[in-house]
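Z., the sequence and structure:
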Amino acid sequence: MIPFKQDFKLGDRCNNIVEIQYLFTLCGYNVNINGDFDSEFEKCVKDFQSKYDINASGVIDKETLNKLNQVSNKPKVSSNTLSFGDTGTEVTLLQRDLVYLNITGLYDREPSIDGVYSKDTQTVVKHFQEKYGLEVTGIYSIETYIKMRELLG
């Protein structure tokens, strides 16, 4: 949860925006996590605001941040596990969470954030499972999901 300190708008650049962009990914938005409040990010903000009946100004204000904190904190577990060969938004979110938690694969490489559950992603999931005392399968199971949510807060 990110506390409100100030409004953020098009053209702003700072570490707080990195955190806000990460929350947008937890809500299913495909956002570059780079700290730049560019026009593409502004479009996502406006879409989010419209979706939740907030004035679609494109500015991250207190109301928008409060709703973002609320929505991004809801568990998003599906009944399915994720494993090698899977693709899609859920895989992308998993990969971003692994990068955010600084879990690396072979040769300390971060997983690609491309929505493809590749061998690299599988290896990084195994490292996560091993690090946190879970059964090491390389499959993103409910147990792995719960531990990851616990760490992400």
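The helical segments are 15-26, 39-51, 62-72, 89-100, 119-131, 142-152. The CA atoms of residues 87 and 116 lie 5 Å apart.

Let me know what you think.
H.
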